[in-house]
Amino acid sequence: MDRAVARSTHVSDALAEPIPTIEVPADSFEALYRRAFPRVYGYVASLLRDRTAAEDVTALAFERAYRRRRGYRPGRGTPEAWLFGIARNAALDELRRRRRRASLDADVADVWSQTPDEHTELALRRETVRAALARLDARERELLALKYAGGLSNAEIARVVGVSESNAGTKLHRTLEKLRRECHDDA
Amino acid sequence: MTTRELELLLREDAPQPSDEFRARMDQRLAEGFPRRRTRRLPALPRVPRLALAGAASALLALSVTVALLTGGEESADGPSDGAAAPAAGESGDSAASTGATEPAPDDLQSLQATPGSDIAPRERERQIERSAQLTLAAPPDQLGHAAEEVVAVADRHRGFVLRSNVSTGEDGGGGEFGLRIPQDRLRPALRDLSAIGEVRARSEQGQDITPAVSRTAERLDETRADRRGLLRRLEQAQTDAEARAIRRRLRLVSAEIRGLTRELRGLRERVDYAAVTVTLEEGGEDAGSDDGGAGTGAAFDDALGSLEGALELGIRALGVLLPLALLGSAGWLASRLVLRRRRDAALG
Predict the structure, then answer these.
(1) Are B176 and B165 in contact (CB under 8 A)?
(2) Helix, strand, coil percentages in chain B from 3-state DSSP, rounded to 5
(3) Which of A8, A71, A144, B15 would be A111's cystine partner, CB 3.0–4.6 Å?
């Protein structure tokens, strides 16, 4: 399972920095886990906005991926895209079960860590962004979660959600611009 | 806020797993992610479900294959119980006597309750009259034996010989047989007859006589209803003249019932028993010789026949399994599509 270098076309290249590796065989499931665990959690938590559910779904996603690891085919995409596809399905199944859309409510504070000592202006900016995120629809939030919490490239995002790479890039760009306008309106 | 600043914020603000959760996951990785049940996510095992579905599909396919391959066989009772192998000629009359002025109550009951006279359910099925013609060749010195074999085959398959004509002599020999074979035994009987000698010709026909059977059955039902009505009127007759008139009419109706019953029985015999004509001719290889070539040839023919049978079985099985596999694949694809759409719908 070789990791492809993540490069995006519509957002800053500075974000596409290599993810640190650890000393395990590059093609092992453990290597994938080490690389992707916090990213999968970040994506799932952004989607579900519930820490307990995010932990359950993340664990389930890795369990399923572990059992299907021999079914992975390189021709179908990178290992990360494959793993995030499994995580996405598990998260959507959880959403279906809960039968409610992710919304800005008391659960929001559950997934984001509290940093009481951070600078007031930075805290205000974070809150502004979170409030603006809450006004996006679920599909738009998912794209942003895959990109920034999951750290996936546009090609990997396209594979996960089932669209073309150019379509994924265009949608990401538009969503980011929309979020920026929402943040500007709040400010 | 610039786009770059926004991107950095989004990345930095991504939810992070707690240390406790990270430690639990590391432990699960070390243990190979053992299955666990959660409050929200019941872990029904997939493999047994798939195995059960596969086993059910295989069982269904096997049942359908066996049913198709053994199709054509009628129910085990073969000819109806009421039609035991009749003598060659007219079938017997019904129980009613011809000279009675008034049918006895038990005669009426016997006519109505004769085993096998339950017309309606039987006649709703298609009534096919089948016949076959077979021309066999045998060496001149084996014609007699072949003729005996033809009769033996008829007996073995619960049939009978309607007519036979065998001749042997210096000018040549041959024979012709008219057999009646129960329809559910026709195929095995033809197979056994074909093994008697060299098959020079073989043909089979089927004729649908359902309309004739249905019409006769309906007329019989109507005539019986007339008879019941006449008997009720006879009970209520108030004068001798009226009673005599009713009795005359009853005699006519009874005779009509007897005729229709005979006609229906004849039709049913035509359906229950296939007419098989076997013609014996001189010719063919001398099956009794010790010639190794003939023995080898026969063995080769047998092997070829077995191969053809196996190939036929395989093609029939494929004809059943392939559509089932296609249906199964289509169903699986449809279910995956529905599931994908439902997941996407969860995002609103």
Answers:
(1) yes
(2) 60, 15, 30
(3) B15
**Main-chain dihedrals φ then ψ at residue B325, nearest 5 degrees:** -65, -40
Q: Tell me the pLDDT tens digit for each residue of B261-293.
A: 999 999 999 999 999 999 999 886 554 444 555
Per-residue model confidence as pLDDT tens digits over B20-61:
999 999 999 988 888 765 555 555 555 555 666 677 777 777
Q: Return the ∠ at Cα A153 (arms to A149 and A154), rounded to 5°.
A: 110
- For testing contact with chain B, the best of A55, A108, A184 (most B CBs within 10 A): A55
Residue from B6, B18, B27, B35 to probe the interface with A (highest A Cβ count within 10 Å): B6
Q: Which helix (H) or strand (E) holds B305?
A: helix B292-345
Cross-chain Cβ contact A54/B32 below 8 Å: no
Q: pTM for the whole thing? A: 0.48
Quote the pLDDT of residue B117. Answer: 46
- DSSP bridge partners of B279: B135, B176
Give the whole-angstrom CA distance, residue A127 versus residue A115: 12
Closest residue to A180, CB basis, from B1, B18, B346: B1
* B159 in Cβ contact with B250 (< 8 Å): no
Residue B290 is classified by DSSP as -
DSSP states of A80-143 = HHHHHHHHHHHHHHHHHHHT----SSTTHHHHSPP-TTS-HHHHHHHHHHHHHHHTS-HHHHHH
- How far does the CA of residue B24 sit from the closest CA of chain A (Å)? 9
User: Under 8 Å CB-to-CB from B282, ≥6 apart: which residues?
Assistant: B137, B138, B139, B140, B143, B172, B173, B174
Q: Give the span between the Cα atoms of A139 and A150, in whole angstroms.
A: 15
| The two three-digit tokens of residue B63, written as one number | 């049942």
Q: Are A79 and A32 in contact (CB under 8 A)?
A: yes
Closest residue to B11, CB basis, from A15, A93, A96: A15
Dist CA B141 CA B170 (whole Å): 11
Q: What are phi and psi of B164, to 5 degrees?
A: -150, 150
- DSSP secondary structure string for all residues of A152-175: --HHHHHHHHTS-HHHHHHHHHHH
CB contact under 8 A, B348 and A137: yes
Q: How far is CA B271 from the centre of its chain?
A: 14
What the block records as the tokens of B181 is 């074979």
Secondary-structure percent of chain A, ordered helix, strand, coil, rounded to 5: 70, 0, 30
CB atoms within 10 A of CB B248: 11
DSSP symbol at A62: H
